[in-house]
């Protein structure tokens, strides 16, 4: 049945199942998983996400998850239904023990081999071979399990993958080495086999480390929803209900300081909601009866009753999660090329080794000698250097950037960031610091006594404006006065008594923008305005971006006046009042006409755009969702981190291309020598390891590229 026919066959009540596939580690794996699931009757589509190591399957109800799991098991991949609440499955942890065993055993066996190479003969050589066998064989069995298990699963079903030639080479080389040990032969290759496994596992671990840092932002996004809420029954009674049990039509009573558990409409009460996660707008938004409010937003001021209109997957928050997950499916232009290459690798290596064996048999070399040469071909063609070319460069570059306060979560982002020629900058929290800063002139106009009272009142509140006052006054060395009878009223502010006088800090009677009013009994009211300041070095960072031929502009969910002020200050073009879907669409429009677009944002509303961009970066002050969705996170206040990340990414890709040239050059020189019988399995392993070390050494040059 064709794909189109299967799509027609799937009913309207199609089921979406997401499976975690921790063993999926390359483009070839992605292709195998998708093809295996798509071949099932009743499956409409299967899309993998390599970063999250998941596959989303759309299928008919009669196709049950156990069937999907069994199908992947037959292809060589363990899978399990993904649970959002479950601890993410680490791709690194299962590989650490095999890597440690391989490295430890390799070092010890190499000590024995040095003595043999130095001329040990007779009984001494035999003893060293036996000691090497006792250390090497158990270590090879244990360290090779990730490859053996995967190879066995696919071979049972008449298929092959990249682990098959590796497993064959390791098994035959180990068997021949043990045969040499039993018969008192001159050579044994336990050290070469262990070295091979060590470098293969090292490449897998480096790649998995980068991917574990790139945890899906979707789970973090959904955690923004409250775990439960107070529900008002028809008879007026209230009870706590967890989020999963909510139903449309129920009435939620949301206290000040609580996040909404579902989308809804305000029924009673007036308050303000912090919607910065959804819109990026730093100022809280008024909400009165009839106002539509969304899950995950924070009730700032006063209790309200909200009628539930959407729950679970129907909320605006879940829609953003779906946009993010869909955007993260296809991130690299090399995926299809790598997929085709991985399909060709295993049969090509098998064919080459088989032809080598047959050719030497025809030449009269005998079974043993022909087999040794064929093993050398299998080992020397192992793509260790190619496998290390990218992850080692990525890890070195990531380590160098980390020292400069930039965390690289996804190593493949370095490839994509190196190509960017356009950057979209969110305003609040990205171009600006994302926190309200009181006006310096207004603070300077306060007397010493007034400043100390303001400090005392603000220190009793967790309101964003109060926190801004505490930070700014603290930087001026202001000490808090002693106040009594402190009270905070939601939506109004803080009142107290100071030296017998009534004092208050709260909402001004009338004011444009963010501001707070300070009152002392018998004195004039003083209004302290707030603003969101540009990040340090913003002008220099924008100049460096233009020098790198990266064209910057502003894409923000904030109001038009707020964005216009920043656009005038920076000289950038801007789009304001953009929803999450608007941001994603604006970014994709640029991509469709050929731009390689980087997104820099910090809020939940930036999540889909961060995921859909060619590359993305977020400040450390970003929301959990922004940090999870972004490829990189910078921890300092300076915006210079953005051009620095681009420069290092471009340097990384230059090194990667050099690494590929070195690895391919090694194969061009080494494979013919192995086919001609000039290379033993040990020399093949040493040559393979040497090529890997050269690649690693070349990558280490990136450590100095973060100036």
TrEMBL record:
The keyword Transmembrane helix applies. It is a multi-pass membrane protein. PANTHER family: ATP7, ISOFORM B, CATION-TRANSPORTING P-TYPE ATPASE-RELATED. One of its GO terms (molecular function) is ATP hydrolysis activity. This is Heavy metal translocating P-type ATPase. Its main location: membrane. GO terms for biological process: copper ion homeostasis. Residues 15-80 form the HMA domain. Keywords: ATP-binding, Cell membrane, Ion transport, Magnesium, Membrane, Metal-binding, Nucleotide-binding, Phosphoprotein, Translocase, Transmembrane, Transmembrane helix, Transport. The chain crosses the membrane at residues 95-115, 127-144, 164-182, 188-206, 344-365, 371-402, 659-676, 682-703. InterPro entries: ATPase_P-typ_cyto_dom_N, ATPase_P-typ_P_site, ATPase_P-typ_TM_dom_sf, ATPase_P-typ_transduc_dom_A_sf, ATPase_P-type_domA, HAD-like_sf, HAD_sf, HMA_dom. Belongs to the cation transport ATPase (P-type) (TC 3.A.3) family. Type IB subfamily. The keyword Ribonucleoprotein does not apply. It is found in: Cell membrane. GO terms for cellular component: plasma membrane. Pfam families: E1-E2_ATPase, HMA, Hydrolase.
């Amino acid at each position: 049945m064709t794909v189109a026919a299967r799509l027609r066959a799937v009913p309207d009540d199609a089921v979406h199942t997401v499976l975690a596939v921790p063993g999926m580690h390359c483009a070839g794996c992605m292709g195998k998983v998708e093809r295996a699931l798509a071949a099932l009757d009743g499956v409409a589509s299967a899309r993998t996400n390599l970063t999250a190591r998941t596959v989303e399957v759309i299928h008919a109800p009669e196709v049950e998850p156990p069937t999907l799991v069994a199908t992947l098991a037959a292809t060589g991949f363990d899978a399990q239904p993904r649970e959002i609440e479950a601890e993410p499955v680490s791709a690194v942890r299962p590989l650490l023990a095999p890597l440690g065993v391989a490295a430890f055993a390799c070092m010890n066996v190499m000590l024995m081999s040095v003595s043999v190479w130095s001329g040990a003969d007779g009984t001494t050589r035999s003893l060293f071979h036996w000691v090497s066998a006792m250390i090497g064989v158990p270590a090879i069995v244990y360290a090779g399990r990730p490859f053996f298990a995967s190879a066995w699963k696919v071979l049972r079903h008449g298929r092959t993958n990249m682990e098959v030639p590796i497993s064959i080479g390791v098994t035959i080389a180990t068997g021949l080495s043990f045969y040499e040990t039993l018969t008192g032969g001159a050579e044994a290759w336990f050290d070469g086999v262990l070295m091979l496994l060590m470098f293969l596992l090292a490449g897998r671990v480096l790649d998995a480390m980068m991917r574990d840092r790139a945890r899906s932002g979707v789970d973090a996004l959904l955690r923004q929803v409250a775990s439960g809420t107070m529900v008002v029954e028809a008879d007026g009674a209230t009870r706590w209900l967890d989020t999963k049990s909510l139903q449309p039509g129920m009435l939620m009573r949301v206290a000040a300081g609580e996040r909404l558990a579902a989308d809804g409409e305000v029924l009673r009460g007036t308050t303000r909601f912090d919607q910065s996660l959804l819109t990026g707008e730093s100022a809280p938004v008024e909400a009165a009866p009839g106002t539509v409010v969304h899950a995950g937003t924070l009730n700032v001021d006063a209790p309200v009753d909200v009628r539930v209109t959407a729950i679970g997957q129907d909320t605006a928050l879940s829609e953003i999660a779906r946009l993010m997950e869909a955007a993260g499916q296809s991130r690299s232009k090399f995926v299809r090329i790598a997929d085709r290459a991985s399909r060709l690798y295993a049969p090509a290596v098998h064919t080459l080794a088989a032809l080598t064996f047959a050719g030497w048999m025809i030449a009269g070399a005998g079974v043993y000698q022909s087999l040794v040469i064929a093993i050398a071909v299998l080992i020397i063609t192992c793509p260790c250097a190619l496998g290390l070319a990218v992850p080692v460069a990525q890890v070195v570059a990531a380590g160098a950037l980390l020292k400069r306060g930039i965390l690289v979560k996804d190593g493949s982002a370095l490839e994509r960031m190196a190509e960017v020629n356009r950057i979209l900058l969110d305003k609040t929290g990205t171009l600006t610091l994302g926190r309200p800063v009181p006006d310096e002139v207004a603070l300077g106009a306060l007397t010493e006594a007034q400043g100390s009272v303001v400090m005392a009142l603000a220190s009793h509140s967790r309101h964003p404006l109060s926190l801004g006052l505490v930070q700014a006054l603290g930087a001026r060395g202001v000490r808090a006065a002693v106040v009594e009878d402190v009270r905070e009223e939601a939506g109004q502010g803080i009142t107290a008594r100071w030296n017998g006088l009534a004092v208050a800090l709260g909402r001004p009677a009338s004011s444009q923008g963010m501001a707070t009013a300070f009152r002392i009994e018998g004195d004039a009211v003083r209004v302290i305005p707030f603003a969101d300041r540009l990040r340090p070095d913003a002008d220099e960072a924008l100049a460096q971006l233009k020098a790198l031929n990266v064209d910057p502009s502003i894409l923000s969910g904030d109001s038009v006046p707020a964005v216009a002020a920043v656009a005038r200050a920076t000289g950038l073009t801007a789009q304001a009042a953009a929803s999450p879907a608007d941001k994603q669409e604006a970014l994709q429009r640029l991509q469709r006409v050929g731009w390689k677009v980087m997104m820099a944002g910090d809020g939940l509303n930036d999540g889909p755009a961060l995921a859909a961009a060619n590359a993305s970066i977020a400040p450390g002050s970003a929301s959990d969702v922004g940090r999870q969705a972004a490829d990189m996170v910078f921890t300092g206040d300076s915006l210079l981190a953005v051009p620095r990340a681009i420069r290092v990414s471009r340097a990384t890709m230059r090194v990667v291309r050099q690494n590929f040239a070195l690895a391919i050059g090694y194969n061009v020189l080494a494979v013919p020598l192995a086919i001609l019988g000039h290379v033993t399995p040990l020399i093949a392993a040493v040559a393979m390891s040497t090529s890997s070390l050269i690649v690693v050494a070349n990558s280490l040059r990136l450590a100095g590229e973060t100036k």
